[in-house]
Specification:
2 domains, mainly beta, Thiol Ester Dehydrase, Chain A, Porin, 227 residues, eleven-stranded antiparallel β-sheet
Length: 227
């Protein structure tokens, strides 16, 4: 939802969102929410957009995004990212019952289709997984490449946990997504890893792909603790 209002905030055809950082202020309730955005710092080549997602009790998420002017550059092919991951059609769809028990019949676990190339929700360690939205962010609309990518990138922490779920919590306080290329198609792939520390602070990092190749990276700061 934040990605949607950011893209629609005083749009400029020659510009594209290059980075979005979302701060998770409090749990997002399953109630009506209001998303708003504004240009905080206009510019000829780059501009900063600020956005909030609020319930009737106040903001639950806030975000900043850099929107950058695009150009046609003669960049040598050999310096462009060229690595790929096995496509979603090469792996078996992952059944919904493989997801962590949530106690809810409806949620992000039912709103997204996922296909693991390696790893799994309940397997410890790095994982590679394709994600596709089952439903639009807003009814009767088609999700944009940014909306699809932000929805998928939030799973990096969940698919790459290295500590047992029944003994530890690892809560992400934020999500930063940087895109060097606009994604193409419905599927977004995460090649994710989690890096814990005995201090109780960790990092989840994901390389992002579409079916053509690399599109960017995402990171999440983690609060680690015993249950």
């Amino acid at each position: 939802m934040l990605g949607r209002v950011i893209e629609r905030c005083e749009p400029r055809p020659e510009f594209r969102i290059g980075r979005v950082t979302v701060e998770l202020l409090r749990p997002v309730p399953m109630t009506p929410l209001r998303a708003e955005a504004r240009v905080a710092r206009p510019g000829r080549s780059v501009e900063l957009i600020e956005a909030t997602l609020s319930s009737d009790r106040g903001p639950v998420l806030k975000a900043t995004a850099w929107r950058l002017r695009q150009a046609e550059l003669d960049v040598p092919t050999e310096v462009l990212p060229s690595d790929t991951r096995p496509g979603p059609d090469t792996v078996t769809p992952t059944p919904e019952h493989s997801f962590f028990p949530t106690g809810e019949s409806v949620g992000f676990h039912t709103g997204v289709e996922y296909r693991f190339v390696s790893g799994g929700f309940q397997d410890l360690g790095p994982a590679v997984c394709w994600f596709r939205l089952r439903y639009p962010i807003v009814a009767d609309t088609s999700p944009s490449p940014l909306e699809r990518t932000l929805a998928a990138a939030d799973f990096g922490n969940g698919i790459s946990c290295v500590l047992p779920w029944d003994r530890y919590v690892f809560i992400n306080t934020d999500l930063t997504v940087t895109l060097h290329r606009e994604p193409v198609g419905e599927w977004v792939c995460l090649d994710a890893a989690t890096y814990p520390d005995r201090s109780g602070i960790g990092l989840a990092e994901s390389r992002l792909f579409d079916e053509r190749g690399a599109i960017g990276r995402s990171t999440q700061t983690l609060l680690l603790d015993k249950r």
